[in-house]
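Thread: quick sanity check before group meeting

JM: Hey all, I'm pulling together slides for Thursday and realized we never actually wrote out the predicted structure for the chain we discussed last week. Dropping the sequence here so it's in one place. If anyone has concerns about the input, flag it before I start.
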Amino acid sequence: MQTEIQKIDEGSLVTAKKILYDGGLVAFPTETVYGLGANAFDSSAVKKIYEVKGRPQDNPLIVHVHKDYDLDRIVCDIPQYAAKLAEKFLPGPLTLVLKSRQTVSPVVSCGLETVGVRMPSHEGAQRFLKYADLPVAAPSANISKHVSPVTAEHVYADFNGKIPLILDGGKSSGGIESTVLDCTGAVPCVLRSGLITREMIAEVAGDCTTFVPKDGEKVRSPGMKYKHYSPNCRTMLFDYANAFRALEEYNGQRSAGVKAFIMCDDDCRRNFFGCVPESDVLMLGKTADEIASNLYFKLREGEKTADLIIAVAPKEQDGIMVGVMNRLTKACGS
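JM (edit): ok, ran it. Output follows.
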């Protein structure tokens, strides 16, 4: 199979729609990461996502729709607080888990009675979803457990020869996957942290909890189990208080001939790694938004040449950084 990267225009949208309706897969941009999409009504097509990614069969998918799509076609019993959250944050990096009408393929939700629905704010994603005018089931467009893709080139690196089309919408600005919010209870509950924080949700909904999974419990959201987001090289993760240990590790590894790189934010670079050559530092940025946007991009950049990425966690870990730390820990932690 030949894989093409095409800019989003009338011609590529015609091609993408035909692929979806014929049961194929299309990679497309969102404001968070690139997605690998299939017609959510077509079980055979959805199964291809799991096959191509090597994704565990018990890891549910998120359904993407355009901003004018009638959600009543795929979900029911929408709580009042969920409607308020949708009005406030959608389109945007928020996935609402709601009771399913069982109209989308059961493969999407791995047999659960719920389905996660999201409206991406990326202009190209909206054009694609509007043109297709059907719910598109899509996880991140990467081989399972690899670093999530934030450019069309990242998708191509993982799926060249395996899917027919990648819609190129530039670099994803958000950088980490959407917040996933369970809206089936009296109070919303964060299943996966992201750019829409628990505090932001609580301000609109009145309250918000965070789910803590128990051993053996069935997965309710993508990203809740398994090692994720990992580069194709060795990794280490140090907390901010142990940054000096990270520096010692870097120096020792470099002395032994290992191509070791430091990955950190601007604050950590200034305080601990001033002696490390710029070429050996994967800079995440200054603000929480910058760090989130750059995390996967820098992991992908580092794996091209590094034998070892030594990551140091940012000092501040609240708000958006909760989601960043979730990804950083799964990518570089033991």
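AS: nice. The chain has a mean pLDDT of 95. Residues 234-332 form a domain with the Rossmann fold fold (CATH 3.40.50.11030).
JM: adding both to the slides.
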